[in-house]
Amino acid sequence: MGSAYFYHLTNEGLDAALLALLPKCLGQGWRVVVRGTSQDRLDWLDQKLWQGPDDGFLPHGLATADHADKQPILLADENHSARFDCLMTIDGAGLTAAEVQQAERVCVVFEAADEAQMAAARHQWAALTDAGISAKYWSQETGRWQLKVEKN
User: Fold this and answer.
1) What are the residues facing 47 on neighbouring strands?
2) How far apart are CA 65 and CA 19, in angstroms?
3) What's the whole-number average pLDDT of the chain?
């Protein structure tokens, strides 16, 4: 059974956080789907991922592009289903307990400045932990990622 990691962004933007998290996922040999709520935001993220990191290349593509099924990192909206080992949701995108159970890991990445994202993360935490999913809440309020709450 997978677990859900909640990443509360307080000191950096989404693109910087994903540039740190995605290489770790690829290092595990996982196929990653980054699920968002808007194609415009996914297009923006696609451009950001092409610009970094400085010390490597993050092979990725949009679900709407050719050969999407071959991408190690796939940027997809909520209407696109794809095989994954790790599912990362951004901007309050939905997920289910069944998806967490089939994944190696699920990451819910949400920004402190966005009340809708905060509300969605709170709702997802409650729904997943009520379903018996193991969850960890990570915050960067001190500048470094710190585990704040863990629920099994």
Assistant:
1) none
2) 21
3) 93
